[in-house]
Write a structure and sequence with these properties.
Blueprint lengths: L1 E3 L2 E4 L8 E8 L5 E10 L25 H18 L7 E6 L7 E9 L2 E7 L6 E3 L8 H4 L2 H11 L5 E9 L2 E8 L7 H13 L2 E8 L2 E7 L4 E4 L2 E4 L10 H14 L6 E5 L7 H4 L4 E6 L2 H13 L6 E5 L9 H4 L4 E4 L7 H8 L5 E6 L2 H13 L3 E9 L8 E7 L2
Parallel strand pairs: 2-4, 5-20, 10-11, 15-16, 15-18, 16-17, 18-19
Antiparallel strand pairs: 1-2, 3-4, 6-7, 6-9, 7-8, 9-10, 11-12, 13-14, 19-21, 20-21
Length: 406
């Protein structure tokens, strides 16, 4: 970022200390954006982006940094967020990176123009689709479906029609949801083509969405995902950690810090039970989650599993109805993994409770720092904070931290 007349100038893909020439265009009322950028000097921290679509595709923004500059940049963003809320940065561990090629779920965009389907992701600041043949972030099983997807969509879509395709790698193979643009007709021919495509390419379930209606087109097996050695039922498009490797690393850190004696655990924003089931090896777990379907599937999965300790999911909007201090005091430990917005109302209640041990996981450094400050104000001590980079080549990090009462 540079400045002109006291206003910020947004210059993508540059590094500190570099000199450029560029044309400036307004970016809102109080900023400029650089375009037609030419580099006069380049930083020693600059790297050759490994992806041929970098700079056009809107998916990755940091491939122009070498590894050292990249990890330093990501940790520095967390340090700034901590400093804003007067948090001690000495508890921050170095960034642990999940390598590219591990992402297990993806949302592709597709459009047919001029008789040809483009499939990929939106371009930067645009709704135009970047047509890709592969993505460095994805598991090989997801990349293997890109070409077959283009082939079947070229037959299914009419010119100018669009679709979103949500793919998730599950234990049995691949789970797919096709969301078609308004006006698309799901006739028998379309359904037959997509069914044949699924059978040929190891897709175990296909759901279709068009005209605001959703239908199950095909299911060969019931999709499951593994949470700490337990097979959990997977509803279409449900939330998962981006990578199994990242999820396992989070749990490894959590298990390393768990108190020796833990009988009753509250898992807040528990989803399908990503950490509910691993936690059940250490104590009885009550999971709380706002989404009805997630709770329904968690309880169905719990009924089918032999967990060491009981698991029970309860639907509850923790933003509107956070657990009270009295409710929280029944637990030896609270685990919370809220959405990006954080859990300010709930954390304030935890800060007033007597819960001896709290684990907080967050994909937002800013909401994490704010919520951590609430816990410290309530008398908690913050121990190690781990930084997990499973959002590779993006500015985002996963934070995992531990709080205890002295």
């Amino acid at each position: 970022m540079a400045h002109k007349d006291g206003q910020p100038v947004l210059v993508p893909f540059t590094l500190p200390g570099e000199e450029i020439s560029a044309d400036l265009v307004p970016a809102g009322k109080h900023a400029f954006r650089a375009q037609d950028v030419a580099w006069l000097t380049e930083s020693l921290d600059r790297a050759v982006p490994p992806c041929p679509y970098f700079g056009v595709c809107g998916g990755c923004g940091l491939q122009h940094m070498n590894d050292t500059a990249y990890t330093q940049f990501k940790k520095a963003q967390v340090e700034k967020a901590f400093q804003k809320f007067k948090l001690d940065t000495s508890c921050l561990e170095d960034v642990h990176k999940v390598p590219p090629g591990h992402r297990r779920r993806i949302n592709f965009r597709a459009v047919k123009e001029g008789g040809t389907v483009s499939l990929g992701f939106h371009q930067r600041r645009s709704h135009k689709v970047t047509n890709i043949d592969h993505c460095l972030l994805l598991l090989p099983s997801l990349n293997a479906l890109i070409h077959p997807l283009k082939e079947v969509l070229n037959t299914v879509l009419k010119d100018q029609e669009k679709a979103h395709i949500f793919l998730t790698t599950v234990k049995e193979g691949m789970d797919a949801l096709f969301v078609f643009s308004e006006g698309h007709v799901l006739n028998a021919t379309v359904k037959s083509l997509l069914t044949d495509w699924a059978k040929e390419h190891g897709v175990v379930r296909v759901l279709l969405q068009a005209q605001k209606k959703e239908e199950l087109l095909y299911q060969h097996k019931t999709p499951h995902v593994a949470f700490g050695g337990h097979d959990a039922l997977f509803p279409v498009q449900a939330f998962l950690q981006p990578s199994e490797a990242g999820e396992q690393q989070i749990w490894a850190w959590v298990e390393q810090h768990l108190p020796k004696r833990t009988k009753y655990i509250a898992d807040l924003f528990c989803g399908l039970g990503t950490f509910t089931f691993p936690l059940s090896e250490h104590g009885a777990v009550d999971g709380f989650e706002g989404h009805h379907k997630a709770v329904q599937y968690l309880n169905l999965s719990a009924d089918q599993q032999r967990t060491k300790h009981p698991v029970q999911g309860t639907q509850r909007d923790l933003f509107l109805y956070p657990l009270s201090p009295n409710e929280l005091n029944a637990y030896d430990m609270v685990f919370l993994d809220p959405p990006r917005a954080g859990a300010s109302n709930q954390v304030k209640k935890i800060a007033k409770s007597t819960v001896p041990f709290v684990v907080m996981v967050s994909c937002s450094k800013d909401s994490f720092a704010r919520d951590a400050a609430h816990l410290l104000e309530g008398g908690y001590k913050m121990d190690k904070t781990y930084l997990l980079d499973q959002f590779v080549w993006s500015p985002h990090l996963e934070l995992i931290s531990f709080f205890s009462r002295p």
